[in-house]
Design goal:
alpha+beta, 2-methylcitrate dehydratase PrpD, 60s Ribosomal Protein L30, Chain: A, 2 domains, 20 helices
Amino acid sequence: MINHRIRVHPSAAPLPREEQLAWRLAAVATAAPAAPELDPDAAAMAVNRVVDNTAVAVASLARRPVAVARSQALPHRARPGASVFGAPAGARVSPEWAAWANGTAVRELDFHDTFLAADYSHPGDNIPPLLAVAQHAGRSGADLLRGIVAAYEVHVALVKGVCLHEHRVDHVAHLGAAAACGLGAMLRLPTETVYQAVQQAVHTTTATRQSRKGEISSWKAFAPAFAGKAAIEAVDRAMRGEGSPSPIYEGEDGFLAWMLGGPDAEYTVALPEPGEALRGILETYTKEHSAEYQAQAVIDLARRLGPRIGPMERVERIVLHTSHHTHQVIGSGSGDPQKYDPGAARETLDHSVPYVFAVALEDGAWHHERSYAPERARRPETVALWRKVSTVEDPEWTRRYHDPDPGRRAFGGRAVVTLTDGTVIEDELAVADAHPAGARPFGHADYTAKFRTLAEGRVEPREQDRFLETAGRLAGLDAAGLDGLFPAVGTAALAAYDAGLPKGLF
């Protein structure tokens, strides 16, 4: 890897474009190897993530935000166009609108992959825009794989090197750049074109993280879909020869100077050397549970602790000692009273570690729908236990969260449970069971099982088999074969639900 130091450069001392971060990201993408030369483990993991995305998308089709996004997309019919999860067979829409609908479906349940380092991210959000453009542009499965692996490489590098959360910038700013790079790799565009697309994507997808603060709305699911849509539009415009704000990262009035650390700040982004294998995707991990990633180990810890505690009315208080990010983002350190509100929306509850820990303690399990049901959140004994849970930042857990060694990096914490009789029960868990360093690391069989579980009742068993077989042959699919990555679902009920939604402009 090559460490690239980036800082603000005044307009009076212009920075050559080949030394700009946007160019270097684009160069990684345009140098990405063809599918047969991809690192085999990285290519296999890309297939797993396609399966993972499809699983969570299918499970979310009847949820309102997903139905709204689908209803917005379907009027934008196009040929060749791209497919939309849950749409009638043969319906094809313009690729940017397919990315919008499918990206929302993938993100809605907060149940797909994650990468945490200096910042946090969901790199699987790159797949919907890439798949949509691949269908529309007649690209093969091998082309799609090349784009996915390149997008993950860029996304992971940015998340390691540039912290957005510190400045309350939403993490989709890195997604826009990564998706533009993935599209450039898939389409084999010139570095100049991808460079301009990256700059436009970063410029138009930079937003505050209020979308994940306080009363969290459905925009949490729409935000990455918006970034994917914007990346497609940026690539289209750059392919037509248009330039973008430059240098977007290092400019005097650019991203670093005014959105991040300021004119004197420096960041280091490590990118592969020419010819080095792209393996960033192997540092990322998926979720076994439908909740914010920093709650994954907490759920597993609660499942382990529950039998030791016994009847929950014995609990006097519970303190979770954890990292700065967990405490500030989904813990009591956020200062958000909504994290203790029984009437809060699902989007808020899945970002409330006190709620998640309380329910997992009581149930000894976690379910992507039942654990968030309004009647579940309002159960009096649950509310009583929930309000006994708080978090504190522990410097050691913060250090472990940012450990540069992926094998030592930890996203869990230590639970201290004090009972009414004064007994103290303690336990800790560094990473979720499904994490690569966890007790039960997710492998291909686990991705397959997750798909079958979430597709049950929505996709017929024979169609499940067909989809999984098609996904497994991704590297050998021709352009028409990409249609097989959209398993057939019963669309009549979905269409009836969509028809009952309020109308918009389209």
